Amino acid sequence: MITVQRRIIAAFAVATLLFVPGTPAFATTDAQSQTTSAGWCEERQPSGRYYYRHGTHWDCVVPGAFCSKAQRRQYGYSMRAAAHTKRYKCVRYPSNTWHWKRV
Fold this sequence. Notes:
By secondary structure, this protein is of the alpha+beta class. The protein folds into two domains: 1-32; 35-103, no CATH class. Helices cover 24% and strands 22% of the residues. The chain has helices spanning 2-18, 24-31, and strands spanning 52-54, 57-61, 75-78, 87-92, 98-102. It has a five-stranded mixed beta sheet with strand order 1-2-3-4-5, with no helix packed on it. A hairpin with a 2-residue loop joins strand 1 and strand 2 (57-61). The protein starts with a helix and ends with a strand.
């Protein structure tokens, strides 16, 4: 009877480890996730932001996020590594707010 309880407890302990973030079970799915940011977007800029101006466009923008005054009517590229080739533009919405929108 005691060994059955120990087996159940051990199985439960192993099962809970599978659902804890940061365990090796999630390492491969996180590395292949499309929401991971590109390596150059993980570094904080001197301005305190993660996005930055690169020549005539902005890098590491978050699609759908608000734009700053300096970014209005400008083009940018996504912070997501898988979507970095997609182009966005800071446009004004009917609600009078500025957001990054896919071009």
